[in-house]
Known about the structure:
By secondary structure, this protein is mainly alpha-helical. It has a domain at 235-319. It has helices spanning 2-22, 25-32, 43-46, 76-79, 92-96, 100-104, 122-133, 145-148, 153-156, 169-176, 181-186, 222-227, 242-246, 297-304; strands at 239-240, 318-319. It has a two-stranded antiparallel sheet.
Amino acid sequence: xxxxxxxxxxxxxxxALLMAAGLSGSAFAQLGKAPDEPQTRSRAETGAxxxxxxxxxxxxxITKTKHGVKGDARTPAATGxxxxxxxxxxxxxxxHGDLTEHNKKPRTPGLVPVTFGKKSPAEPQNEACLxxxxxxxxxxxxGSKHEQTKxxxxxxxxxxxxxxxxxxxxxxxxxCFECHxxxxxxxxxxxxxxxxxxxxxxxxxxxxxGSTTRASLQKNTVNETCYQCHAQMRGPFLWEHRSAQDDxxxxxxxxxxxxxxxxxxxxxYLCQQCHQDGGNHSSTAFGGKTLPGGANFAANAQRxxxxxxxxxxxxxxxxxxxxxARLQR
Length: 329
């Protein structure tokens, strides 16, 4: 019995050696590749020319994007024409232009009609993208702030990446921060929108491709933009706080402050920027004497500590109570 087992083992080892001898080095390389790695073809298989991925293998991830969906007639994968006979390079020319000369002399600079990079002219890059993406939110691109400053689509988008960082809420802000570094600082203050947690992106409020409003807002006004989330502040109210109904940014800095809830100045000093003549209150601006330890603290404690003015005037955005003229109920 033991001799039979040993003979079977010897036969199995012999077959394995014969199979290994029959496999070429390139076949072993193919066996070692992960299933989702790019499987490029040799020059002998494609004729006398190279497919793009033999040199630009790092850009093969574009096949995993919407641009690489061959079943969609609108995509480069469906509309592009191969210059090498290899389907892997069919979509490249749809955006980069005629690559025939570049394929013949790949090391000669300047033969690629359209290149996407910081040193390349902005107009050809954007024209290549707008040839397909001119509709929708891009209709305001011409004349937008980004277009006027010579920004390109590739300044923000990574067309070859399987996941474009600017299209993912969790990573979108980091792309915007490459230019808007002042906003990065504000969003790291104590009171901010939940941008750092990935729940809230810059495009939640701003239209990066341009709009008809200031600061490229998604809606017609600041308040309409804020009301997308803060609908309870919309009203209409029987008794309105005019400042709140005029512009949310009169009191709030939406990118972040060190005063909750994103107030531009802490209370009561924020309120006294408008309400200097206090009516039933003293018209003297609050100062050091009214703070804890000051000579007038006892008389003004309810107006400077805790929620300050909103200790009493809690319906600060507006009230629907018949007796809510002073926004106290």
